[in-house]
Each structure stands twice: as structure tokens, then as C-alpha cells.
Amino acid sequence: MNLPLRKLGNTGMTVSLLGLGTVKLGRREGVKYPEPFELPDDDTVLRLLDTARELGINLLDTAPAYGSSEARLGQMLLDRRNDWLLCSKVGETFEAGVSSYDFTPEAVQASVKQSLQRLHTEHLDVVLIHSNGDDLTILETLGTLECLNDLKARGWIRATGISHKTVAGGERAIELGCDVIMATLNLNEQGEAGLIRRAGEQGVGVLVKKALASGHSGAESLRFAATAAGVSSVIVGTINPVHLQDNVRVVAEACADQ
Predict the structure, then answer these.
(1) Phi and psi for 65 in degrees, rounded to 5?
(2) Which of 58, 79, 41, 19 shows the shortest CA–CA distance to 233?
């Protein structure tokens, strides 16, 4: 069972076709999963990370909006940072059970600095704008992307982009030269398939979110997302090693059948 590797657009990075989402490591409130869950203990997280690496996964997706996820990962990865590509985000934070948004350059720089500290790393491989849905305003008027690109030039970040909420936002991100976009794609939501294909054709890395529709869909939807044109990696969050193994098998078999 070989998990395919893909180029992350023109970033020079190579990512596993399945990435591990880590919201469930740090946040259980206000998430849209079909079943409630408890945050895993440290031993469980370590086993999950070990399993992920053994299965060929090299991409971890986190964010300040994921509660304690960044801080927990930072402690777990102290002696193995180089085993992973780390993707985090800016713009949304989650504290005391409430999300808040700030896309100003001052907030963006402070957020990236905090993420570096929490993750105990000198650089983040990918940082995406965690959009609140007002994609065009964020991209065109707030200076958010310009700030991220400045931090990229300073060596804090290797690649920048946006986790967008609208097709127009994704299209504009490509026009503005984003390195990476994070797009929604599953069997029930195929409206961004054309955008994803065009991004791939133009050398923009594409990370897919909600391939399982936040746990409401299954293997067929994951297979669909993993084999769609333009996709670099599909981010799936789980704290169950068996589910992780199942997801890797689905993706590997789907690509072997292409």
C-alpha cells in the first residue's frame, strides 16, 4: 500500500496525497462532526502521528482556530520536525468557545509568530488565510496576503495562500499569485472542481478540505476527491488510527486504479 506523493504546485515541496487534519487534537466545540468526541490524550496522539508517518503521510494541517492543536503538536514534534510539512493558518482564532477574526497585517504577523512559537519551529511550510467567507475583501483590501508574502520573503513561511469559502475567492487567489489554495470538494459539493483543475494547470498547489463532508460521507467521496484533476493533497482529520489506515488504503487503491 503505497501512498502517492504529489508536487505542491510550484512550491518545490512534495506532499503525500493524504494529509492529516488535526482539529480533533485541540478543539471539540463548534465543529460539524456527526458524533461527539473527546480530545485524545498525549499517548494516543503520539501513536496516531507514528501511524501516519508509517503510512507515508508527511503533511499536518493545523490552525490557531483548532484550539490547542498547535501547542500539542509542537510538544510532540520537538525531535522530529523535519519529518513533516506543517500547514497552519491566520485570521481566525478560537478561545473560550468562540471564534474571532482579524485579517489586519498586525494580527497576521502576530499570529504567525505565535504559531512558530507554539510549534517550536523556525519556519512554517504553508500558511493559509482562514477566511470567514468574505474572500474578496480579505484578498483585495486588507493587506493580509501582502503581509504573508512579506513574511515569506523573510523566511518565516515557505508558501502562502488561502482556505477560501467561494469560487470567486479561489479564482482571485490564483490571479494574485497565491502558492496554495485550500478548496472544498466531495461527492455532494463539486462546485469547485473546475477551479481546482485550473489551479493545478497554473502551478498552484491545491489542498482539499471536507472530502468526507466533515464525516458525513464515506470512502467513495474520498476516492472522488483524491483522483480529481489538480489536487495535491486531501486533508482528512481523524484521531482513530484504524480510520487513518482505511483512508490511506482508499486513496492508494483509487490512484492505483487510475
Answers:
(1) -75, -5
(2) 19
